[in-house]
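Hey, sorry to bother you again with one of my protein questions. I've been staring at a protein lately and its backbone has me curious. I owe you a coffee for this, so here goes:
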Amino acid sequence: MTKVCVIFGAGEYYGSPDASLIPSDAYIVAADGGLDHTRALGIAPDVVVGDFDSLEGARPSADTSTRTVVLPPLKDDPDMLSALKIGWTAGCREFRIWGGLGGRVDHTLSNIQLMALLAQHGASGYLFGDGTVVTAICDGKLEFAAHPVPEAGRMVSVFSLSDVSLDVNEPGLKYELEHGTLTNTVVQGVSNEFRDNVRAAISVEKGTLIVTFPAEVALPSVNRNHDFSGSIGELDTEVSALLVR
């Protein structure tokens, strides 16, 4: 069974996280200002990481059992990527993230790109916010269980993060794309819908897709077309070498 890492970031929360999506044995990481949220929720993180520029409360104390990783402000990796790397090193390959959407649009875009980074290394990441989940799939398939759909419907959208995504299929959705080709400048996959009590899937033979779906829908099962190798990189705690001194 895949070990789950739950990350609390400093972005918008849109209410309290769904407790059922936080397994009792999850590896918990608070990314910078995400520590404010874990404190408010009464959740004790396993690790706190960041340069603490977005933390409103007290900095973590050295006399607790929580591991604290202090990053320099002038760094290459954003706090969220550092949190993902910590979870990856702990053996996690599924990441559920709150506080990664909303707020600054550049942070939102960055975090969506990080979902693609995970997918391209055989892991799964889910960003929760404002009634929506954002994930990515690379060379594989997301399968959604049949579920009741409100009369008004809720949107599921598919975008190609790759320059080109080949053999894209969306069986079970209202608009059933078959063997389609999507590019990162084509928005053909936006505003699709689940069908009432019908199983659905979103697959891509070659390429990386960003998928958004309603938060009330159960997380999909993930099947990949091949094995993935490599890691998302080592934790970087140094000042950026790109700075001009």
Summary: The chain has a mean pLDDT of 94. The longest strand covers residues 200-214.
